[in-house]
Design a protein that fits this description.
Blueprint (H helix, E strand, L loop, with lengths): L5 E5 L4 H12 L3 E5 L3 H11 L6
Parallel strand pairs: 1-2
Length: about 55
Amino acid sequence: MSNAKTIVVFGAYGRVGSALARRLAQQGTRLVLSGRNPERLQALAADLGAVRST
């Protein structure tokens, strides 16, 4: 069983949301990114090195 945390980041492509997502990703946290613009979310996920995004 894994102790990995999963955190949902709302408004993930905004200034605060993206900074938070980057910090959490560096710590190895699994992220669920949420926002209104799918293209920007995909770009952020790719930048963070996401293995899978929907």
